[in-house]
Amino acid sequence: MNVEQHDIGVSQVAAAIAEPARTKILCSLMDGHARTSTELAAIADVSASTASAHLAKLKELALLRLHVQGRHRYYSLADKRVAQALEALMVIGQNTAPTFNSRTPDRLQFARTCYDHMAGTLAVLLHDRMLEKGWLLEIDEQAYRLSDSGEALMERLGIEVNDLNTLRRRFACPCLDWSMRRPHLGGSLGAALLQTAIKRKWVTQDLDSRALALTALGRKELGAQFDLTLAQPTVQPIREQRPPQPARDVI
């Protein structure tokens, strides 16, 4: 792809994401779950026909993936890179919309999913603790590796590090967190840590948002494993909130 084609591609993707209804659709899929066009139309607050047009455009630009199961059609983010790009845009967006952070429920800021790994205050605390303890070591600005003591920690948590190294994705990397504006842990290790936390019932997933709730067991066992004192935020409405957007039904 030459420079001109690259510029055109960036502008097309930026224009697609800039449409408020499409932004809502994309952000709603950042929890890694697939949803139907009917569900996404309700989330974006647009008609079914308008949602279909938006979904077709996002699929055309390779931002969404369509899954067909019999008569059912589901949409998900094309891959983790789309989620990472959206998370980065949220960080930039806070600089131009200072009221955004105050409108976001505490639970969503405290812990949420970022595609297939954990984000929010809790995730940043765990990331920082792993670095402080020397469990996680920087290879460069975009990659981490585990130390011997870090591998021992993962073994205690039941995470098979050797299996993660065989996956066709980065093992461990920083992912910029939009609410904290600091990195949390991404990559296959970050995904495995989230799945372990869910399996062990340290966190529970909300059904209608990306929010994660830290359980009493999670406060005790995560705190013990990572040598942290963890607190649960005050409960607020858990549906994801975003800055008010003008109503637009455009393609």
TrEMBL record:
Q: Which Pfam families match?
A: HTH_5 (PF01022)
HTH arsR-type domain location: 2-97
* Species whose genome carries this gene: Pseudomonas mandelii
A Gene Ontology molecular function term for this protein is:
DNA binding
Q: Which UniProt keywords apply?
A: DNA-binding
State the source organism's domain of life.
Bacteria
Name recorded for this polypeptide: DNA-binding transcriptional regulator, ArsR family
